[in-house]
Amino acid sequence: MTGSAGLLLQAVVIVLNWRVGKHRTATPLACGGQPQGLPGSGQIRAPLAAYRRSPIERIWTLSDFSRRYLLRASAAAGVGAVVVPGLTAAGAPDIAAASTPGPMAASDPSGRPGCPPAKLTGHIVRPDDASYTDDRIGYDQLFSHYPLVIVFAQETQDVVNALTWARQHNVALRVRSGRHALEGWSNVDNGIVIDVSQLKSVQIDTDARIATVGAGLTQLEAVTTLAKQNLAVTTGSEGSVGLVGATVGGGLGPLNRWLGMACDSLIGTEVVVPSGHDCAKVIRADLNDHSDLLWALRGAGNGNFGIVTQLTYKVHSLKRLAYVQATWDGLGDLHGIFDAWQRTVPFADNRLGSEVEIHKSQILLFGWLAEGSAAEAKEMLAPILSVGTPDVTVQVGNWGDIFAGSQVPRAQEPANVKFFSEFAKQLFPKKAIDVIGDFMRNAPTEDSNYFVDAFGGAIKREPRGGSAFVHRDAIFYGEIGAAWGTPSTTPGVCDPLTSTCQAWTAEFSQAMRPYVDGAYVNVPNVGMQEWETAYWGRHNFERLRKIKAKYDPYNVFQYEQSIPPASL
Known about the structure:
Radius of gyration: 25 Å
Number of helices: 16
């Protein structure tokens, strides 16, 4: 074959090989070994955990190629040369310009007017930088990925530039905030991670009770900052979790029965979305503009439609809070405690929120009463506290102080975790509680637990404009969690407890199936069949696919359980 046809075929082969090689995974080495280079790449070391594309993503890759890459290859062949702009001879995007601090230049492969060549800006980290290991590792060290480049955005324009650069060079991308993606999906091998954790800003209108914050805030930063003004929104109880990720996935925690889910207070967002063929732009989604996107961002999960850089909440007055903690030694009182809890808290005064953690050798009860006294809180929880002889403490004060005081330093937390999420729409019978007891007595570590968070109250009410969060009729949320290991730079797959903990979680979740329903997108269930329905319900999922097709038709934002556009 000769001439332009031969050159076109060469171009197709080059691009197809790169598209496959971009996510290729080297054979994992024994623990403690140094990873080898990826085939065809001299820029990056091999990942220790495989990146797997779903069938939907594989289908999109082929259709996406037919529209985008064939046109570019044809244009190159037409002038007598095969050119795949932005690629080095090794098949990886050319990031040599990042060897020195400052903007990273990139040629514009599209050749189309109106979208100038992108430059990576912000704080840029490459594999050979001293901070690379610390900057790539997430909260759950069971997963270890090796991105080509990490961009820590300092302002929204850095996000625009990074998304445009990734599109112009056809580089896989992931969005990251608090690094708590529990299956490692906020990171990617041989791609770009766009990190918004340094976008920290706060503007509070105390009269209107509206707060606009940067997407980089953690839950601890959000809670303590608002609490200084005697204000609050729902967040989870773990302070290091990113506010944006928790909110966009729904957001449950101590105040949810009083204020609803975290996403229910979300009234506006600034989002960077794909634009045109390979550009990006900033849009504002609220009840007046792009209200369909706001609906989706209230529960769809982070990293599906664009990159959220700013969030606006309707905040609520909270001058004081009563915090109750009770501890029972052993599991002898499990049935009485759990049954009293599930029959009491989900149907109590909306101001009362409560969680229970069941461990191998103890049971913990947490209760939060908004604008309540110690006596009032203990009275509401009396049916539970009257079981056995718990050790009970009560604290009353500013919500920010109480929240901050309950945090556990990261160095004291396990390095590796594996969760399974579920919702209960009916009270657990004795058999279900017996299953929990049996598995917890045989838990692989003391840090492993079964956790429940009470629903009811304000969660039952949809916010104005609605939301993608579908589990409002649940009585409580349940979560199986295995936790083990100590933080290090060695991936958790090297820990001898890993296989035991993963098997325990899988067997536990299977045993609970007759008693639960659905799943929580912020705590994804890998391997679950029909996960789309489990997270959002069939109707909401189809609506989310249409919204995805509107704002991300090329499926730029994709990961193992991401929402595909309706056009697929």
